[in-house]
Structure to design on (470 residues):
């Protein structure tokens, strides 16, 4: 278990309102919300070098149970958080409910989806990237257009320095709905591009900045990410490098291979954007996770003893043919722009006889449910697994249930079983016989208070991949 907090009496000031000194923080972990049955307590140090963030790793706890935690500094006591341990690998586990979220541009709207997620009974939340956006946020919070407070000018510029990124996390993490979701559920996080810069690839930035200069920015972004997320010591960055991809087990029920498809990718082919495939994009040298991470994933599948093999990652894995007939372009930033890399993984999954593959995806600000085909050009080919794409929490503002290209997408992609353009999140119940995905949507985010509905639900059976609407 990893417990996280940050000391920040004045969160929007560069020094957080604290002197540049170490602060001792006491923490408590209990079996009950009132802390009558304390399971563990200890002390941690909040370092100014880490922006007074605190990461407490607690080991040897009872598997498969809920805990409550809080922090104390002097007479000040934090709110109570709720988290849980995963079941032991040897433990028989009948079910797991996860949520998947992504893309939470603060300036595009309110985190109403998080308000609802905080009330849901889920075991764990996977954040699939774009936790923050580097773009400027004006004094009224962009589309939030709030009238009750004025944000300082320092947010009204693109983040490039360590201080910029740190303060941007401070802005996001003071949102009450995001805080409620973190307090209610454990989060497993991975990033996409906007935690650093739009559509960067490895050491290649979006614009014509020299790699050595971009790597300084990447180092700042990665450091602020580590400081502000519940991440362990092996994830602590070394300059511009950070080991984010990692493997988690949930009893025998599920193995999670959490990918990083930004740090090691080759540059987008054909100048990025939606382009017709060429020899450049089809080349075997193109890789999205990097060759080392590709081998690590396939090796993990080979060793896996889990019923469900889940891959939380960022960009769309399945083919998306353009919604307009005759248009042969595909997204060069997603797996469609790195088809040789995807083919190596599909071949590896075959060879490893990986069972019940489920890819969890963010990035595109819409939800999709797709069958992963062995050959996307042949609708009758074998279904290897399923891909569940979660829409954005806010990015793209209100959206609509059926965007103008809705019918075109479904017609030109027979493996696509669902497409919805509203904001929200996904919950997935993994069971011994089947998995069920519920796509939760809110009708608006530019004003607060939207209700949540389940737009669609799908089931895939264990041992027989393929989505069926229920
Ligand atoms: Fe995004």
């Amino acid at each position: 278990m990893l417990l996280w907090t940050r000391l920040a009496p004045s969160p929007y000031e560069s020094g957080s309102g604290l002197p540049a000194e170490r602060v001792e923080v006491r923490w408590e972990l209990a079996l009950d919300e009132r802390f009558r049955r304390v399971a563990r307590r200890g002390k941690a140090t909040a370092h100014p070098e880490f922006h007074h963030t605190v990461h407490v790793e607690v080991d040897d706890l009872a598997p498969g149970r809920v805990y409550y935690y809080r922090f104390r500094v002097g007479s000040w006591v934090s709110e109570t958080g709720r988290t849980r341990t995963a079941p032991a690998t040897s433990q028989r586990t009948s079910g797991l409910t996860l949520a998947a979220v992504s893309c939470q541009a603060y300036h595009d709207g309110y985190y109403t989806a998080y308000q609802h997620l905080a009330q849901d009974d889920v075991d764990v939340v996977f954040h699939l990237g774009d936790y923050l956006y580097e773009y400027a946020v004006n004094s009224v919070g962009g589309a939030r257009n709030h009238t009750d407070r004025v944000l300082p000018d320092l947010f009204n510029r693109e983040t490039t320095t360590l201080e910029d990124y740190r303060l941007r996390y401070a802005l996001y993490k003071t949102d009450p709905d995001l805080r409620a979701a973190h307090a209610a559920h454990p989060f497993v996080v991975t990033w996409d591009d906007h935690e650093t810069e739009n559509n960067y690839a490895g050491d290649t930035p979006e614009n014509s900045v020299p790699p050595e200069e971009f790597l300084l920015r990447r180092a700042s972004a990665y450091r602020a990410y580590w400081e502000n997320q519940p991440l362990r010591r092996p994830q602590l960055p070394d300059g511009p490098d950070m080991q984010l991809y990692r493997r988690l087990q949930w009893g025998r029920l599920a193995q999670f291979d959490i990918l990083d498809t930004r740090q090691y990718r080759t540059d987008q082919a054909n100048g990025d954007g939606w382009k017709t495939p060429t020899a450049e994009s089809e080349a075997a040298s193109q890789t999205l996770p990097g060759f080392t991470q590709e081998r690590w994933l396939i090796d993990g599948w080979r060793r896996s003893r889990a019923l469900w093999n889940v891959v939380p990652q960022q960009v769309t894995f399945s083919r998306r043919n353009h919604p307009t007939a005759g248009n042969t372009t595909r997204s060069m930033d997603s797996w469609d722009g790195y088809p040789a890399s995807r083919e190596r993984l599909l071949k590896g999954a075959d060879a490893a006889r990986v069972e019940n593959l489920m890819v969890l995806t963010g990035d595109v600000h819409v939800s999709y449910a797709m069958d992963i085909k062995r050959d996307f050009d042949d609708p009758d080919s074998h279904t290897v697994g399923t891909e569940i794409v979660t829409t954005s929490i806010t990015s793209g503002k209100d959206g609509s249930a059926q965007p103008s290209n809705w019918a075109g997408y479904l017609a030109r992609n027979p493996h696509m079983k669902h497409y919805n353009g509203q904001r929200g999140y996904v919950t997935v119940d993994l069971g011994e016989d089947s998995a069920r995905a519920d796509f939760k949507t809110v009708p608006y985010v530019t004003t607060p208070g939207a209700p949540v509905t389940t737009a669609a639900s799908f089931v895939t059976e264990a041992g027989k991949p393929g989505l069926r609407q229920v």
User: Anything to note?
Assistant: The CA atoms of residues 203 and 211 lie 5 Å apart.
